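G., the chain you wanted modeled:
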Amino acid sequence: MRRVLVVDDEENLRLVLRTLLRRHGYEVECAGNGEEALALVDAFGPDVVLTDVRMPKLGGMELLATLKAKRHQATVIVMSAFGNLDLAIEAMKAGAYDYVQKPFKPDEIVLALKKAEERELLRRENQALREEIRREHRFEDILAKSASMQALFRLIAKVADHKTTVLVTGESGVGKELVARAIHQRSSRRGGAFVAVNCGAIPENLLESELFGHRKGAFTDAVSDRRGLFEEATHGTLFLDEIGELPLGLQVKLLRVLEDEKIRKVGDTKDLQVDVRIIAATHRDLAQETKARRFREDLYYRLNVLHLHVPPLRERREDIPLLIEHFMSRNNVRLRTNVRGMDTEARRLLYDYAWPGNVRELENTIERAMVLAEGEQLVAADLPERLREARDPVELQLVSGEVSIKKTVRIIEEVLIRRALQKTRGNRTRAAELLEISHRALLYKIKDYEIRDL
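Predicted structure as tokens:
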């Protein structure tokens, strides 16, 4: 951080600061107001903008807002006379790093810049560490560190290169399509197309044509020949999402394709050979669906050659901090926001919530909060009311129908440890006393549950 842009309408002050900062090894450019500063920003690329609050044409507050809107990474330090102190504090709330009160001693400016350098170095180190963590826990487009998801990753890697049909199960929003894409990307078919279709989103009378294609004149709107999704996915992968919604008549035809690797277009008299790897997914219990005769048993067994289950987010809470960080970083780029973190209460609410909509609900919640956030840090008020009024995770576990003592004890134990650490403001010795366990046992459990940011 060696480039400083000084913005002040007093020429003498600009001259003094240019001389001082150059003497300390900084590259310096000066501007007389915010408009001049904006004209210099792109060409000069300052690491720090040292700006007065009150200036003609474009003041320091407007300059700060413009830099934030353009997502410029420069650290902003405001300078203010005694009467403008409230404005300086307002600027810090709006995203400025620090302020220096006029008149100031030369050492105060140099110290402010040194502090900004240290803060920026720490930010970059943290960013590098977060990127390293993401790389370590990324499997294709899936981020997870929990043992259950790591086991799933190993299974995907093992089955990916075989043409065997895969059935992916899990609740809505857990990322079943991401699992299917990961299988495709890890296979020798990755050079072919990955074609996804939601079997419940297409009207029954159109679904057969969508899957298998049709010949011109096969029905009223068939004005030309049309390729189906099986043809589109030739030498690649066809992902049949929500396979449990497939009508019984089409289940018979799909079974035939799986057995013979041939399709027949609507209105055609000839079969067409296809080379497609089928991955199906459902949130339904297909075994129960077959008993109820809503799903063909023979098709179920043909699809369920390899079964991959994606656990719900509430059963792998250690993945939540990683996902939060990922969604915040991505949204800062996509939404042009500048949210850098969240307070302890907001993080606790996100961690304790049961997430019935799983990863998709978490992603949408983070996006909503970032749009509504007024500062660089998310707070509890930015989160939806349903999170703030959610029941205790222990209560949710007890009413969920879960009968595993082992799982329930772990949830209760983790909640109690978090409460103890919150009550003692992170004092682990005192927390161990409240929990009536040894300090060593508490340290082991903190590591086991990956408890941080309290």
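The chain has three domains: 3-133, 143-311, 315-449.

Shout if anything looks off.
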